């Protein structure tokens, strides 16, 4: 990976202090959440290296960062979604966008989605892999955590979209790369196209990943059970879900669940 060139060591020789120095020198000006994301991506690389006996241990198992501080997110309201949807149908990756809006899938998860993970009989989608891009590395890996491996109940519109795509499928991937159907579409390409489309059509700016947050926010506004939402999103625990969506959940309920989390 090009980010490790500054360390100038073989991957087998990289130690915890090397990683901390890299983080402090290369990412110190980034937002706290970006630092965590960078570490998570790098950890994928070392997990792969450990699994394939390239390194004897995963140095990232020892890496810790300050807790992420979440702020109110700039997302679309339900009224704005209804306003934008007719225009968004012209978006190249509209089907993917709408699927994320109704499932809360992460960008890498939806890009890596294969047809064997879609159960049309039970109307269930299985999440068991993700498309990761970090530096010079890109490829299909396991999801970010064990809790990210999950099953999601599909809503009617998502089922309709998937069935239509299945009729015209040309790849094992639900959203194949148009230049090579043997690999999925690149998540960064999707994000870039989404950003340009919003700007071109004067639509309120959000990230493609924010569609996942919109999904969660809409469900919370419909009083969905917190545990069900946490499982649907693939979060490690309910407390993390509550912390992430403090802008939607009443403070007294957040505190209540934090206290309950200490019991289990």
Quaternary state of this entry equals single chain
**Total beta-strand segments:** 7
CATH classification, class level of the largest domain:
Mainly Alpha
Averaged pLDDT, please? 83
H/E topology pattern = HHHHHEEEEEHEEHHHHH
Share of helical residues: 40-55%
Please give the domain count.
3
CATH-defined architecture of the largest domain: Orthogonal Bundle
Rounded to an integer in angstroms, the radius of gyration calculated over CA atoms is 20 Å
Please give the order of strands in the largest beta sheet.
1-2-5
The separation of the N and C termini measures 40 Å
How many DSSP helices? Answer: 11
Query: Could you describe the largest sheet, including whether it forms a barrel?
Result: 3 strands, antiparallel
SSE class: mainly alpha
Silhouette: globular
CATH-wise, what's the superfamily of the largest domain? Intergrase catalytic core
Task: Provide the CATH topology of the largest domain.
Answer: hpI Integrase, Chain A
Task: Extract low-pLDDT stretches.
Answer: none
> How much of the sequence is in beta strands?
5-15%
């Amino acid at each position: 990976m090009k980010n490790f060139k500054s360390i100038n060591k073989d991957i087998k020789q990289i130690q915890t202090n090397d990683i901390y120095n890299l983080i402090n020198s290369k990412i110190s000006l980034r937002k706290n959440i970006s630092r965590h994301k960078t570490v998570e991506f790098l950890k994928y690389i070392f997990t792969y290296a450990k699994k394939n006996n390239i390194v004897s241990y995963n140095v990232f198992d020892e890496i810790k960062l300050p807790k992420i501080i979440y702020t109110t997110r700039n997302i679309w309201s339900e009224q704005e979604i209804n306003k934008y949807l007719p225009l968004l149908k012209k978006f190249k990756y509209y089907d993917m966008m709408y699927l994320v809006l109704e499932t809360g899938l992460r960008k890498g998860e939806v890009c890596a989605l294969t047809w064997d993970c879609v159960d049309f009989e039970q109307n269930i989608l299985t999440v068991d892999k993700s498309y990761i891009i970090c530096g010079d590395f890109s490829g299909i890996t396991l999801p970010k955590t064990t809790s990210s491996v999950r099953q999601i109940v599909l809503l009617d519109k998502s089922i309709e979209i998937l069935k239509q795509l299945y009729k015209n499928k040309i790849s094992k991937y639900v959203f194949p790369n148009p230049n090579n159907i043997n690999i999925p579409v690149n998540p960064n390409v999707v994000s870039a196209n989404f950003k340009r489309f919003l700007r071109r059509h004067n639509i309120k700016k959000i990230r493609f990943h924010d569609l996942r947050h919109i999904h969660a926010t809409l469900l919370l506004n419909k009083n969905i059970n917190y545990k069900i939402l946490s499982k649907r999103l693939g979060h490690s625990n309910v407390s993390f879900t509550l912390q992430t969506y403090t802008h939607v959940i009443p403070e007294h309920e957040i505190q209540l669940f934090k206290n309950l989390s200490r019991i289990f």
